[in-house]
Amino acid sequence: MVARAEARRAWGVKGGNHMNQRLFKLAILATSIASGLVAPAALAIPYKFNLVAESSGSLQYGNFSDPAINASGQVAFSAFHGSSHGVFTGPNPLTDVVAQGGPGFDRFGEVAINASGTVIFHRTFDDTGLNVRIMTGPNLLTDTVVDGSGPFRSAFNPAINDSGKVAFWGHLDTGVMGIFTGPNPLTDTVIDTSGAYDGFGTPAINAGGTVAFYATLDAGGEGIFTGPDSLTDKVVDNSGPYAILFHPVINAGGTVAFYAVLDTGVEGIFTGPDPLADMIADNSGIYESFYDPVAINDSGTVAFVAVLASGNGIFTGPDPLRDAVIKTGDILDGVEVIDVNLGRWGLNNAGQMAFRVNLADGRQGIFVATPDLPEPGTVVLIGLGLVGLGLMRRQRMA
What we know:
There is one protein chain. It contains 3 helices and 32 strands. It has 398 residues and is mainly β. It folds into 2 domains: 1-46 and 375-398, no CATH class; 47-103 and 186-371, no CATH class.
């Protein structure tokens, strides 16, 4: 309230006057920082929102997947266009198509995109779930990373890093399951079920090629790991204080983020084995529960979907006011938000987030949220100027 009042005095804003909303927010931000009233990290980050694709108009989509976003802000997602399913990168399903199936079963799964714009996805050609491929484009010959013709029986949930290295969950003809980085199970195996592991979940791969994954163990229990040794490569397991674990993501520095439930029943978003020191947010306060998955970038920002009494939203920390990005009840594209979802590849290093949303007018859409802040030096200069103006006004009034 002090910062808001100071900003109003500095700008000369009185009861009936109006000003540009963004400028006024920046005035509050700058004044707070320059006055030493609050550290920059303690203030809510404003975002601007751009529509990528929607389910209305002459080129409408339907049934969006969670989108992925790369370093430059390019977005990829799967969706229906007409009777066909496909993978797309923009508002026009005719020109922004990466790959599209025919009018039959042909379906596309989770999508990821790297800095160079390479899009990787899982494609299933029939309802048996066996005729599958991991692909980077429409050409079955040149764009296939791995298929189910042998030695793989199936392959799912691909991830890709900026150097083009992939990771996916696969099932071999021999019955062995594992996490792989290519079509040769002899040279491209990260881990499989021939040892201590019993089964796997969706993998994530970072810039250095380290793969993080959820797994169950032959001896019982489950955990999150980054390599073949279930002891030395363990990030966390469910032997306590964690009881239930979900699929992880990993950044360039090796920080792993995940959603979990503790022995106490508390749910939360965490980055390591200590639920106190490594907690991003939990449901001991206003948050009621969380969605899997979460997202993380190389600066350590973790984004997640949490459930509130009023609905759900995307957040980046423990405070649902300060750390909110978009939530139920907010106005987006002139319409009230009724539901939002964020995928594991929905956050980039610039802090941009690609997400899917349901709006009150019945539309579905893919949007990108971009932090809407001036450069730090500009904030400080504006703040100092505002404080100076405020002092000058008070001196004149004295």
